[in-house]
Amino acid sequence: MTHAIASPLPQPILPIIRMGHPTLRRVAEPVSFPLSENLKQLADTMVATMLAAPGVGLAAPQVNVPLRMLVYSVPAARIDDDQKVQPLGPQVLINPELKPLSDDIEYGPEGCLSIPGLKGQVPRYTHLGYRGMDLDGQTVEGEAFGFHARVLQHEVDHLDGVLYLDRMDDMESLAYLDVLMELEADAAAQALADHEACEED
Ligand code: NI
C-alpha cells in the first residue's frame, strides 16, 4: 500500500492550542534521529491541520508537542511581485536554524492560528539563510526572501516560546480581522457609489 494515494479516510486534524497555554511559551526540545514513526505521522497530520485551518505555517508547540519541528508553505497568492520568492507546497523542517543575511527589515501583516481573529504589522528580516533536517534526517538548507523569510521567522519563534505580538513595536496596527474586513467592504461600497455618481454627471 503506497502512502501518497488519496485516502477515502479524512486525515485527522489536531486541536491547535491558543495563547495562554504554557506550551506556547516554552523553549521546545530538539528532535533526535532517526525519527520515530509517530513523529513522521505527526508531521503529516500537522500539514493536514495547517491546510484545514487554513494557515501557512504550524509549529509543533501549537499542537501541544514541545519539539523543534514545523511545517509551512509559501502560497503563490502571498508573494506579490517579489521575483526572489518562489511558491512552495507544504514543507517540513526539523531542528531549524536561521541566520539573517542582511540587516534589512520589512514590516508586514501577520496572524497566528494560536491567536485567532487578530492581525498586526510585524518587523522581520527580509533575507536569511535556513538550515534544518527533513523527515529522513537529511540536511535541508537554503536562502529565503520576503514572505518565505517571514513565515520561517514566525514559525521558528514558536519553537522558542515567542509569539508575533512580542515582535511588534507598534501596537496601533493590531486589529481584529472582522473589523478590517468590514472597513474594506465599506470602502469598496463607497468607491462603487462614487463611481456611479461620477457616471451620472
Ligand atoms: Ni503562529
Tell me the span between the first and last alpha carbons. 69 Å
Instruction: Let me know the largest β-sheet.
Output: 5 strands, antiparallel
Q: What is the oligomeric state here?
A: single chain
N-to-C SSE string, H for helix and E for strand: HEEEEEEEHHEH
Shape: globular
Unreliable residue stretches:
none
Name the ligand types.
nickel (II) ion
Helical content stands at: 25-40%
Kindly state the number of beta strands: 8
Give the averaged pLDDT, no decimals: 93
- Give the strand order of the largest sheet, numbering strands 1, 2, ... along the chain: 1-2-3-6-7
Strand proportion, as a percent range, falls in 25-35%
Short overview:
With 201 residues, the chain is of the alpha+beta class.
